[in-house]
Amino acid sequence: MIRRWYRRLLVRSNAARALASTAVVAVCAGALPADLAGEDGPARDGSTRSHRHASGPAGPLDGAGLHLPIPAFSRQFRTACSTCHTAAPKLNVLGEAFRLNGYRMPDNQLLLREDEPVSLGDEAWKDQWPRAIWPGDVPGQSPLAVRIQSDMQWTRDEAVDYDFTYRFPHEVYLLAGTSLGNSIGVFLETEWSRDEGLNVVQAKFKFQDVIPGVAPRRANLWLGLQNPYLLSFADRQIDRAARQQFAWQDFRASDLRFVDANSGQDLVSRNAFRLGWTQPSLELNGLLTHRLYYGVGLAQGTARQTEDNNTAKDLYLKLRYKLGGLDLQGQYADGDGPVVGAGGQLLDRSLTLETFGYFGSQPASQGVEDRTRALGGALRAISGPLDVGVGVVHSHHDAPWGRDAEGTLDYWSTFGKLEYLLFPWVIGSLKVERFEAPIPENLRSLGYSIGERRRTTLVPGVVVLLRQNVRGVVEGEFFLRETQSRELGRRLPHSLWVRLDVAF
Fold it and tell me: Measured on CA atoms in the order 248, 254, 257, 260, is the torsion positive or negative?
């Protein structure tokens, strides 16, 4: 009976991979140049009129990775970066469906997996299970890739008009990603910098369809050191074409230093938790419908250390609904299809609403736990070359200073992002954010009056795809308001960044 259940589970997983063949052919064809998709290109009904290039071409040094540009996926599937990316690491709608599917591409005539996996065991072993090991496979080619980022930075500070710095390189990444058989995916991300040395950013496994009797794609278990992707919109790994991220993704309570102007005494929290960090976690996720995604996770609340720093685990919840366009399983509705004439980019027309809640605790001081909760939501619209959205995040800390000082801390972020494809290889970008972390009233009554963080930023930029795996970025960060500089009598710290990002 166990063997019959396990075989049904594997068959069901295979069925989930075969996602509406003709619709996905249109998606992949729409993501490729017209001369590679057939003379007439994809039709609106999801069919193609020409299949002369049935398996798709292998472009020079292309990458179709997910969390970061991973050319290993390009080599496996023999396809271009723009099949899954608008500008790596920013995913397009097919790339997001591929990520949610455990790094498995929907079966179709244009994008079959080209490399032949190495079998680990004989197919006949399936009939002998559990008296034999269930056979699997490993990639036929190396799943490794390298990414190099180099930056130039101009920053104005209190001492000089502008400080000019080379960051050559800024960071170097070693990346790996692949599927192992029909129901397991694995991803590795390490980064090295001269300032911090070598760090493992992500190392995770994806087990798809883990609960027997549940419909395909409804229940997947992801575990390891991973990004919780609380909001997929504007996420710093899967939805960032330019360079700068939003303040709420990187903010820590320990970043604030409140000062009593009369005595000079300062107050700093020991809570260094960041919402945007990767962390060890177990996550159950899936698609309740083709357009409704959920995720529930238990996280350790730490990122840069192996052992937990308390006895509690953090809980996070997330929910996302997508209306129109390619659904989250990689299919189009009847009569729908990709936006044509995109010149190598896969375009969409859709509206996505998502929300999250994060509830945890971190050690503060003298044995006190700082219980935190964060809530957020975002609304995103994609219409052909236009990608625009807005979001809000609020976080509350019950005891960020432990026994050092009583009081709670709240911060808010209201943010938005607009990107427009001026050409298939040129993206205009604009990000805005209003971030508020005021001094609590009870601390003001004790004399603390310096150190609150209130800032409004405007971040315009241009992203240029010199090649599909070579990305150039010019981006400025301009402060319309910044209270810390004002309190210290300093000029606003405007910056200009130039980045070269190469993956191979």
Answer: positive
